Amino acid sequence: MTSSKGASLGNLSKVILAIIVVFTLSLITWYQIPCSSDHVARKGQTVDSNAEGGIQTLIVGNLILDAVTGQFVIKNRSHSERLRVKYGLGVDFKDGFKECEVRQTDSDEVVDSACLEIENKLKFVVHHKSYNSVDCYDIKWMSLSCEVTPMDCLHMANAHWFGGATSLYQHWPIETSHMAMSPYVTTKHGSVVERYWVNCRGVGIKVDDYIPLHVSVNNDDAMLCFKSSYDSKVFSNLDGEHMQLKYQVCLGKNVKAVHQFMSPRFFEKPQAVPAENVFKYPIWSTSERHGKDVDQGKVMQFADEINNHWFPNGQLVIDNSWSTVYGDLEFNHETFPNPRDMVDRLHGMGFAVSVWVTPFANIDSKAFSKGLVNGYWIEDGKGEAPIVVRWLTSNIGTILDVTDPEAVQWFVDRLETLRHDVGIDTFEFDAGQVYYLPRSYITRHPLRSPNEYSSKYIEMVSRLGDRVTVRTGHKTQRLPIFVRISDRFSRWGYDSGLKSIIPTMFIIGLHGYPFILPDIIGGRVISFDDPVDGELELPERELYIRWVELAAYLPVMQFSVPPWEYNSEVLEITRKMVDIHEQVVVPIILNAALDAVQTGAPIIRPLWWLSPDDPPALHSDDQFLVGDQLLVAPILEKGARQRDIYLPEGHWTDNLHGGYFEGSQWLKGYHVGLDEIATFTLRANVIV
Questions:
Q1: For residue 548, how many other CB atoms are within 10 A of its CB?
Q2: Considering only CA atoms, which of 443, 371, 442 is closest in space to residue 410?
Q3: Phi, psi of 206 (to 5 degrees)
Q4: What is the pTM of this model?
């Protein structure tokens, strides 16, 4: 017995020793994991549970979630805080979370994961992914109750933020903007929408494209907030699903680094460069010149005036009221008695000819009746009749179902017929935004997201060539067409005036759309529905001149109010700027356009593209780069004849006054005459 007992004690000692060794090794391994570079998936660390066992703190990579404060922070690899998020607003987290099972993922990049939940309320899942120089966190909140609406608010303080939708009051950076919580879809002024933001601290955010996303910006709280909710007139929850809020956060070295990492993962690069002549020569539009009061004689008179004043022909857009009724894609033979002859004569003068087109059809049109018989229109929520849309204030009609292949082919065929019979070269497409859809509607094939309507509309019209211009954009970066910014108005400010143009170009370019058509020079002075009675109303003279100078350095110049309506000084300044655009700027733009096809980079770039860690470059909204080589600093203030100019890092040649400057410095009080614009060229391979 004793012998036997002694043996048992000996075995027990060995077991205890083995346990101690294993435990010690596990402790060593645990402490080594944060510094390890291997990519083996492992479970997130949970610490600081409360007395009831509720988890109060979670650490996954450099994401630290605190249930007491209802916030999580994300730090970079140097353990410096880069983002702070207030999560799950409206949910009580005082008792902490419970652990839940993490679904396995096949991704080699996932190095850490965790799942937490509050029973019958909310579930939180995070995956930490590690790349060479970037860390990403996939965040998912899942509502477990119809009464819980997932909502996260990102603190915007201590950083400059860029991205989001275009807006009526456009700012860059966006933390000075204000937007109340609203559905994040394409709207009248927010016509280009991507769920993408970056900031100057190297943080990038991409929200899932298919959740019912609502966004607010600086809604009196200095926060960027995301909410997933079906409680709006835009998003419908036909299947009774619980809400999910899904987004990815990536951390890079700086704003440019994180953008260049994220952009190719979420945005397709353009497939080709659109028509070179659209970049090179001006577009002339009848919109402000004649409004709705346009006819064949006035179009030919406009063309004669352009030629008689020795301007490049370019493209002439017959902008409004060319058809008998909106929706009937054929000329009104009372106002355009011989459209084929008109177009042939315009071609003989060197013009390409475009007409303005929308997806609408008024209820008194032949197209409406034809589409009604064949089911080509979007139907109301009961499937009993086409939806009714009021547009351009006085028009009542319906809208094309772009999910229906037969409706799409019918629409495109009618435009091809117009092209064949009349000789029209291309089309200026308007509308296509979710803004025009009602709360309840039925399409032939369901839309995963309302924004998909905009995508499918753009995909449809892109079939009509590389001169096409469109008003909206969502996930259509790959298409080699021009995206026209929403209407600008004849004023100086950020309220869709002159100062809003550069910020708008930046935001659209950041979202992967490089081929941008600014609105007409001088801005709009009449309502779209109004005829032009008597004398043409002109934009303010100085505003018009400064607008021309800015437009000369943007991808496309578009006129409606012609410069000869002013005086000889305005005419000569405009001629000079049109010549600079064609001879100097367009070659740079075309090189940048090729770069856009290869890399997805914008043509018009913010200063931080060259100096991503330079504070003045990060908040500059009145200077820009054309490609990487040309810096442009226009005058945007009424009455100004000088301005301060910031040169980012590099060696710069002053193209206006001559001389050379080192970058990373301000040029204070730089003189710019009324007929001038300040530009600087980056000097390559300079040895100091």
A1: 24
A2: 371
A3: -130, 115
A4: 0.91
